[in-house]
Specification:
Length: 431
């Protein structure tokens, strides 16, 4: 009855969706524990591309239960459209197959208006948010003025909270951001309708998981974004608004830390980043462009081109420490095929000194110079590889060094976008 947490080790977009989909075959419950619809998980199943923003990737398995935990901020319009889209494509999403925590906070129209208005006001100093209202929603949660999913089932309570909050938000939108005020009646009516449609899905996720564990079920916790986007431990302020590290699964789903048995870190064979912020190994040359085009490195949520660079071992070691990683899944190894030389960042140089960790000050991170170790590339296509022995020796050498450097075993390797294109060395649920 293991409980496994899947987290990203970089700045997100590591390929967590595919790995979660694969592990979901061995899990009974799949739980999303943080973030919002600013994250997107892309899966290719039977040649068809699917992008999920809120619903856990396990939804494509008929006999699984998917849960959205209290640590997720939910835009009900996005969630309902996602349910409708899946059902139109032949994937049923009935209550019982999907549950949403009644304690999950809701993204409201004023959150999105504030998010966009702030970014527009900042201009060149913008953080690069997706404009989905994620940050402002988490702000209200911490300020104890948020609206939770369960509040929609109590019209009087919802009306009171909305009226009090909207007065302040409209003042801020008009007087500071120069935006148009929002209508109370329209929001109230629309969100009560959302509440009626979502009511059958709402539950106490923490209790559901306690029962599942008592029954000996396998539980998979699915994180969004990546370790370096964590609000506390990432490259602040160029981060998301929640705790993306493995410890966030406990608070974001309502489980105790002793219930977590294994933490799997997803690490792309190179590094990417979307939006603003420091990126020590970024390649603004033809190799970076090669990685972007061959890897399809465009945001699944925004379509923005991802910045690409070599694998950053310092970032990886940070993820090992912050998450307590038990194993690594290396994704997009196939994208490196065809490169004559592959480089791996072992350390940084700052003002003539060697650093083996990230500085805490953003002003220093932006001045880091990576120190690389070089590896021979390979030209063999990896899409048909199903065992380690199938990989070219140069790829095996690269993977062995990642293991040695991180001191964490590689337990899974993705060799292409399709579900079947992977090598499973050890099943995290086989403890």
């Amino acid at each position: 009855m293991p409980s496994v947490v899947v987290v990203g080790t970089q700045w997100g977009d590591e390929g967590k969706g595919k790995v979660v989909d694969l592990l979901a075959e061995r899990a009974d419950y799949i739980v999303r524990f943080q973030g919002g619809n600013n994250a997107g998980h892309t899966l290719v199943i039977n040649g068809q591309k699917h992008i999920l923003h809120l619903i856990p990737s396990g939804i494509f398995h008929d006999d699984k239960v998917c849960l959205i935990g209290n640590g997720v901020v939910v835009d009900p319009s996005v969630l309902l459209k996602e349910i409708e889209g899946l059902e139109k494509s032949g994937v049923p999403v009935p209550p019982g197959k999907l549950y949403v925590s009644e304690n999950a906070h809701l993204i409201m129209p004023y959150h999105k208006a504030i998010d966009l208005g702030r970014e527009a006001r900042k201009g060149k100093t913008r953080i690069g948010t997706t404009g989905r209202g994620i940050g402002p929603c988490y702000e209200d949660k911490i300020a104890r003025r948020g609206i939770k999913a369960g509040d929609l089932l109590d019209p009087e309570l919802f009306a009171q909270k909305l009226r009090e909050t909207l007065e302040e938000k409209n003042f801020y939108l008009e007087k500071y951001l120069g935006q148009a005020p929002l209508s109370y009646e329209e929001i109230y009516r629309t969100y009560l309708e959302y509440g009626e449609r979502l009511a059958p899905y709402l539950t106490n996720v923490s209790e559901k998981l306690a029962v599942a564990r008592a029954e000996g079920k396998n539980i998979l916790f699915e994180g969004a974004q990546g370790t370096q986007l964590d609000i506390d431990h990432g490259t602040y302020p160029f981060v998301t608004s929640s705790n993306t590290v493995a410890g966030g699964a406990c608070a974001g789903a309502g489980v105790g830390p002793t219930t977590i048995d294994y933490v799997l870190g997803i690490c792309k064979a190179y590094t990417t980043r979307v939006g603003e912020g420091p990126f020590p190994t970024e390649l603004e040359n033809e190799i970076g462009q090669h990685l972007r085009e061959c890897g399809g490195e465009y945001g699944s949520t925004t379509g923005r081109p991802r910045r690409c660079g070599w694998l950053d071992g310092v970032i990886l070691k940070e993820a090992v420490r912050l998450n307590g990683l038990s194993g690594l899944a290396i994704t997009k190894l196939d994208v490196l095929t065809g490169l004559t030389e592959i480089q791996f960042c072992e350390s940084y140089e700052l003002d003539g000194k060697t650093l083996s960790r990230l500085p805490s000050r953003i002003s220093e991170i932006s001045r880091l110079k990576p120190r690389y170790r070089s590896f021979r590339g390979w030209h063999k296509e990896l899409s048909a590889c199903r065992t380690l022995e199938d990989l070219p020796p140069e790829a095996r050498e690269y993977l062995a060094f990642i293991e040695e450097f991180s001191q964490v075993p590689v337990v899974m390797i993705s060799t292409g976008p399709a579900r079947e294109q992977h090598i499973l060395i050890r099943d995290p649920f086989s403890l």
